[in-house]
Every structure is written in C-alpha cells, then in structure tokens.
Design a protein that fits this description.
alpha/beta
Length: 274
C-alpha cells in the first residue's frame, strides 16, 4: 500500500492542519520546558505531517524521534521534510512495529504525540500508551481522532446507514494494535489518562470539505462504501447506489462533507523528573 498511503497522507495534510485545535496545541506548548531542547516522540509518523505542524508551535531547539513501521515512508522523510523545519529541529527516525509499545522510544521524552492514530488502536493499547507516558511524566497531544460523526450535503437517504456501517467496520478492525476502539477512542483514551492522574482537555478538529476538495471527498466516499459493503454485504446494491449518487454530487461541484474529529491533550499533574 506504500505509494497509495503516501498519496492519501499528502492529500489530507492541508485539511488536517486547518482542522487542528490551535488552542490545545498552545496549551501543551505552554507546559513544556524552555531552558533546553525539547524531546518529542511522534508515533506512526507517516510523512511527518504532525512534525511539520507542531514544530512551528513549540519552543526551539527540538529533538524529534519519528517512529513508523513503514520503511518506505521513513526513507522518504528527508525529501518531504526538506526546507520545512527550522535548522534547530533534530530528526531521528526509527522503523518499529507499534503493535506493542517499547519503553525505549519514550525514555526522556517531554511530549508524546500522534495524529490520526488513536481510532485505529485498541483499549489495551491506549492503556499501555497512558502507562508509558505516566512512567516518564510526559505530556501528550493526540490529534484528529475520528469520533463517529459526519455530515454530507446534499443529503442522501442512506447517509446515516452508511456511516453506521462504516463505524461498525472500524470497530471490528485489527491493524496490529488489537481490536480498534474506533469512534470511542477519544473517550477511552481520556479515561485511561484520567485514571493515572492526568488532566485532560478535548477540542473538536473537524474536517470541513468544500466542493473544491473533490479529490479527498472522492476517496472518502469510496472508502466509506467499501467499508460499509464489507460489514453489510447484503446491502451492497444499496451502498453502490449511494456511492454513485454521492460521487455525482462531487462531480457537479455541489458536495460538502464534514468529518468530525477530536484533538486530545493530556497534562501530567506532577512532573516525575526535573
């Protein structure tokens, strides 16, 4: 899936950046050290979009560890990062399967962050993430977690049904992290961190896709229809008809889609290190 995944990540990056909560980003930035280099780990870094977004909001200098299991995406980072970061940002990459979290990637980190990841992982994984952060006293910022809601305009009668089938499909998925928390991920993560004494803040980070975002809309509709058909194969004719009508709206330049996400910031109540 390497090339298609890279293309998808590139397509969504500007929409992700526009959707993210600046207030939560600033709140996290305000709690981090300013008297030395910040030490940050980005989980599931992909094309590095989270780094490009956050680096401009955090104090310098910065030392980043970018972790992903996709060797191809990591190999492309020097090219896609070229000129995007301040020279005082040091970048280290590590190829690693994140299905089971390794304490070595957390050691000494001030901030643990990820983007568009939490809805793909299980409650067990989220508990492990919270425990690793707590063990080192790190703050966390987890952006763009899908929360199960979306709206399409013009409306079609099957919009709600397709969304529910897609949500069921996401909850049934296991991408190597255990059965996905899916649309419940933000609430589950909030509970996991709160139980360890973290102060938690949430903020909406919805994608708002105008007619001009036709390429992204097209891929979304295709992906939703495929997921819905996998979970409800008997409804495939209905889903296929829905897909064609939604794509006709996109081609006509009148389609608007909102996909609801949340950003999650977690603040340790007490620092466990100097």
């Amino acid at each position: 899936m390497g090339d298609s995944l890279a293309e998808w990540l590139a397509l969504r990056e500007p929409v992700d950046a526009a959707a993210r909560s600046v207030a939560l980003t600033r709140a996290i930035a305000g709690t981090l050290p300013r008297d030395r280099a910040l030490r940050i780990v980005d989980l599931g870094t992909g094309r590095g979009s989270n780094v490009r977004y956050l680096s401009g909001h955090l104090a310098l200098p910065q030392r980043w560890l970018l972790v992903d299991q996709d060797a191809g995406l990591l190999a492309a980072l020097p090219r896609v990062m070229a000129g995007a970061l301040d020279p005082r940002c040091e970048i280290e990459t590590r190829e690693m399967n994140l299905g089971t979290l390794d304490s070595s990637i957390f050691e000494g980190r001030d901030l643990v962050t990820a983007s568009a990841l939490l809805d793909l992982v299980s409650e067990r994984w989220l508990r492990s993430l919270a425990a690793h952060c707590h063990a080192i006293g790190a703050a966390g910022l987890f952006a763009l977690t899908y929360n199960g809601a979306s709206r399409c305009s013009p409306e079609e009668p099957e919009d709600d049904a397709v969304r529910e089938w897609m949500n069921r499909h996401q909850r049934s998925n296991d991408k190597g992290f255990g059965r996905a928390a899916g649309p419940d991920a933000v609430a589950v993560a909030e509970r996991c961190f709160s139980e360890l004494g973290y102060r938690v803040q949430r903020a909406p980070s919805d994608w708002i896709l105008p007619p001009e975002a036709s390429d992204l809309q097209w891929q979304l509709v295709d992906g939703w229809a495929e997921a819905a058909s996998e979970i409800a194969p008997d409804e495939s004719p209905t889903i296929g008809s829905w897909r064609r009508r939604r794509q006709a709206h996109i081609e006509a330049g009148c389609s608007r889609i909102i996909v609801c996400h949340e950003d999650l910031a977690v603040f340790p109540r007490l620092k466990s290190r100097e």
